[in-house]
Amino acid sequence: MHELIKTAAFDLYELHLFQLVVKHRSFTKASEIAGITQSAMTRQMQGLETSVGLDLLERTTRSVRLTSAGEFLHREASRLLGDAEQALQRLHEQFSDSKKEIRVGVSRSLCLAHLPGFFHANIRHTPLVGYRISSEPSADILTALEANELDIGVLSRPKKLPGTLRITHRFEDTFTLIASDDLAGEFAQMPKSKERRTAWAERQNWLLLDKQTNTGQRLNTFIARQGWNVNPIMQLDSFDMIINLVSLGMGVSFVPIRALALYSRKKNLKRIKLPVRFIRELVVVIRQHRKMPDHFTQFIENILF
């Protein structure tokens, strides 16, 4: 047993309070949320620093900052507290009548049309399992998975995956160029030369996914490779919103073909065929579990790609 564990009290409650202080950068706000006095919160943090023998927080008159040691503890404590919470949840699911639950994070860059494939078969085959769904940026999903605040993430393949996570499934998501009926007709009547198509593309009002997202970055790289110098008039975080705006004649965009399944009745929405298509890879990500619970495995296997 490590000497620190034998000689110092390791208090999960103190770690929880520490995380509140870090999250809100304020002893006052953290104590309000925890339901204790500010002086009690101060004593708890002093006790934690004494236990580990390191300065974790730098206090100023206006805010609280983390030391390097505090940054490390914050990162590791997120995982530790998440593990403890999950262990208690699994304990109740396994040995009591508590309903099994799966916390799923779905990237905001996925469309509503993707969701039936993720959940329809599971709801039919495993009706006793509940689902808590959140729609978040991909980076936040990875952070939440590491902290054990989510069980499963479905997102565009990240450039780098933390070592604590792994990909279980991959599938391709093919895109198409969409425009209003008039603009699509104009494109179809043009001579099929690269120069004319480039000139047409650069005249349009582009509605694109935010460049800060994984998909947005890759999509902008794809457009640049076509030789198109495009400056979007709008950057959005939802393909569903983009599709609706294109149907109103506000511009053109690249969107997942699957997303258009929900908008088949929009007559002023046309697909434009190009010789090359943009394809992104969507992935299912989980933590590096020693053994994944059966209802997790069943959920992933029931996803219809």
Please describe what this structure looks like:
- With 305 residues, the chain is α/β, with parallel strands linked by helices.
- The protein has three domains: 76 residues, Orthogonal Bundle (Arc Repressor Mutant, subunit A); 89 residues, 3-Layer(aba) Sandwich (D-Maltodextrin-Binding Protein, domain 2), CATH 3.40.190.10; 109 residues, D-Maltodextrin-Binding Protein, domain 2.
- The chain is built from twelve helices and eleven strands.
- The strands form three sheets. Strands 3, 4, 5, 6, 9, 10 and 11 form a seven-stranded mixed β-sheet that branches. The protein has a two-stranded antiparallel sheet with strand order 1-2.
- Helix 2 packs across helix 4.
- It starts with a helix and ends with a helix.
- The model has no long low-confidence stretch (mean pLDDT 86).
SSE pattern, N- to C-terminal: HHHHEEHEHEHEEHHEHEHEEEH
Strand content: 15-25%
Please give the share of residues in helix.
40-55%
Structural Rg: 25 Å
The major beta sheet can be summarized as: 7 strands, mixed
Q: What's the CATH H-level homologous superfamily of the largest domain? A: Periplasmic binding protein-like II
Contiguous low-pLDDT stretches (5 residues minimum) are: none
Question: Tags for this entry?
Answer:
D-Maltodextrin-Binding Protein, domain 2, 3 domains, seven-stranded mixed beta sheet, single chain, 11 strands, alpha/beta, two-stranded antiparallel sheet, 305 residues, Arc Repressor Mutant, subunit A, 45% helix, 12 helices
